[in-house]
Amino acid sequence: MPSKRMRRHGGASAKPGPAEQEIVKTAGVISAVIFDLDGVLLDSEQVWDEVREQLVEERGGRWHDQAQTEMMGMSSVEWSRYMRDELGVPDPPEEISAEVVRRLEEVYRKRLPLIDGVQEAVERLAARWPLGLASSSNRELIDLVLELSGLARFFRVTVSSEEVERGKPAPDVYLEAARRLGVEPARCAAIEDSASGIRSARAAEMLVVAIPNPDFPPPAEVLALAAVVLESIEELAPETLTEAARLSTASSD
Question: Which of 73, 107, 156, 247 would bridge with 168, disulfide CB 3.0–4.6 Å?
């Protein structure tokens, strides 16, 4: 099995400042786990890329190589405006979002790109903690994916970033998921793959498990924000989180 890389938040020698002391007191106790969707449960980032690029080209817009990276983590409101303002799609943002969702639904119904090992990993964690989902995907896509995959029964709450004020890397979607779970954010672990998602979860003061997306790998300085970095979701288990939480607590000693 590939090795895990454990690290303390902020690096091995980092010490929490006065403003972080209350967070550290509860960091060793995990009361809930919150998953990202795209890139963690679904191998879908490339699908999003292809669907949006195709729409831009069909509408006479101007796609560029950094477009997908720049849109990662944005809410549907934010990325549909980006496609209009930055990529030149002439339609209203609401119509852009609706058309992208329609095309993605069509793809998912034909073949859902569920990542290998997801079912087992979610079941392992659900047996130990209540689970939430905090995603940048539209509400319709979240519900469809959980229905098609059979995973809906494992998640107590799900939040789309279109339901909060700001998308990732702002912490809003993670904070709302924790609120709906009834758990303090500092007692939540977040499972993320992208730079914007990792920043979002850490801004919410959660313990972060990073499973980097190989197609859109986060830079090293962002991965350093995670308590543990895994090579695949098949490595994700309750003991992974409890050990990461223990190291996070130890960093305050």
Answer: 73
C-alpha distance across the termini of the chain, in Å? 31
Spatial distance between the Cα atoms of 174 and 32, rounded to a whole number of angstroms: 12
Q: What are phi and psi of 5, to 5 degrees?
A: -115, 110
- Which pairs from 7-12 meet CB under 8 Å and 24+ separation? 7/224, 7/226, 7/227, 7/228, 7/229, 7/247, 8/227, 8/247, 8/248, 8/250, 8/251, 9/202, 9/207, 9/225, 9/227, 9/248, 9/251, 10/224, 10/225, 10/251, 11/224, 12/251
> By the 8 A CB rule, do 141 and 101 touch?
yes
Peptide bond into 93 cis (omega under 30): no
Please give the Cα distance from 220 to 143 (Å, whole number). 33
Q: How far apart are CA 30 and CA 187, in angstroms?
A: 5
Nearby residues of 14 by Cβ (< 8 Å), 6 or more positions away: 8, 251
Q: What pLDDT sits at residue 65?
A: 85
Check residue 197 and give its pLDDT: 95
Cβ atoms of residues 90 and 205 within 8 Å: no
Helix (H) or strand (E) holding 208: strand 207-210
Q: How many residues does the chain have?
A: 253
Neighbours of 5 (CB within 10 A): 12
